[in-house]
């Protein structure tokens, strides 16, 4: 059986480096399941792998789309599985990496057959949002499905609309519907995480935002301002700078909000991963010895 090593963890923890180290050890390739890194115009704000990192190991699904492209999680599942099958023809092991929880789930388990969007529900929810704001949708979801509310990116109104619509249609919690694994996969999945104290993680996130600003995040966001209504840009790092451009916030406050919202997102990711009992953790700032032990663990798992 072929092996898929899935490197997971919150934003800013160092997944890119670990994925490259593993890809080099196994002489294989990397599939990204970071849904923000699909967009070629958003390199800095999504901390996409650098040119040097991309040269260290072949990567797929990095900068493969434009922010103007519509791309659903269902399309990603199909494309990623197709790419995996191609890679498994030449490699025993492939690496999957990214912090988009649902996108990882789509690859390793499959998505459920959820109902199509209900136009009336969508219109009703859109009206609620237009008149009472996104906060009302957040409240509504928290009431209907507190478990999904814990992990959803609640700044993303489309995710909120989708979840509430499905709950109304099925009378079931969205978190329960997506918890049921659909297709069995014909490859073994080994999930690897990186662990750090909350202080270490938050410090890394804050420093990373400062680095992004030095690398030119402000200019990148300015160039994308004309697309600010698109879903791809309704995301941390860009939404805050658009408010600065609109004169709502000053720059220091916008940057502090990027840090705060990135920490919040990391907290949600941690909540999601904590519920899993199949993730093997490596310490932040791992040594060669730690890495060797990880390889031993992976080798044992592949032999089971």
TrEMBL record:
Assigned keywords, A-Z: ATP-binding, Magnesium, Nucleotide-binding, Transferase, tRNA processing
Region described as Interaction with substrate tRNA: spans on this chain: 34-37
Superkingdom, natural source: Bacteria
Lineage: Bacteria, Pseudomonadati, Bacteroidota, Flavobacteriia, Flavobacteriales
Family listed: Belongs to the IPP transferase family.
InterPro entries associated with the record: Dimethylallyltransferase (IPR039657), IPT (IPR018022), P-loop_NTPase (IPR027417)
Organism: Chryseobacterium soli
GO BP, sorted A to Z: tRNA modification
Protein name: tRNA dimethylallyltransferase
GO MF term (any one): ATP binding
Site, as annotated: Interaction with substrate tRNA: 100
């Amino acid at each position: 059986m072929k092996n898929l090593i899935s490197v997971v963890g919150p934003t800013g923890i160092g997944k890119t480096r670990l994925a490259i180290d593993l890809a080099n050890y196994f002489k294989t390739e990397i599939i990204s399941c970071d849904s923000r890194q699909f967009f070629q115009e958003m390199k800095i704000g999504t901390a996409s792998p650098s040119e040097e990192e991309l040269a260290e190991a072949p990567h797929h699904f990095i900068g493969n789309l434009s922010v103007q492209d519509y791309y659903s999680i269902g399309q990603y599942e199909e494309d990623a599985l197709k790419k995996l099958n191609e890679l498994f023809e030449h490699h025993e092991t492939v690496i999957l990496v990214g912090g988009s929880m649902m996108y990882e789930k789509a690859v390793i388990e499959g998505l459920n057959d959820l109902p199509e969007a209900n136009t009336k529900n969508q219109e009703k929810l859109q009206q609620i949002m237009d008149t009472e704001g996104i906060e009302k949708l957040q409240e509504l979801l928290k009431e209907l499905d507190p478990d999904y509310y814990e992990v959803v990116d609640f700044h993303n109104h489309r995710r909120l609309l989708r979840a509430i619509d499905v709950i109304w249609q099925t009378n079931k919690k969205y978190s329960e519907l997506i918890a049921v694994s659909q297709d069995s996969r014909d490859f073994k999945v080994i999930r690897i995480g990186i662990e750090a104290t909350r202080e270490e993680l938050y410090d890394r996130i804050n420093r990373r935002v400062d680095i992004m600003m030095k690398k030119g995040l402000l200019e990148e966001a300015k160039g994308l301002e004309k697309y600010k209504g698109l879903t791809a840009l309704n995301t941390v790092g860009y939404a805050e700078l658009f408010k600065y451009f609109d004169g709502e916030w000053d720059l220091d406050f916008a940057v502090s909000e990027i840090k705060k919202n990135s920490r919040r997102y990391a907290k949600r990711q941690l909540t999601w991963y904590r519920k899993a009992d199949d993730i093997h953790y490596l310490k932040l700032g791992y040594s060669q010895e730690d890495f060797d032990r990880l390889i031993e663990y992976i080798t044992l798992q592949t032999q089971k």
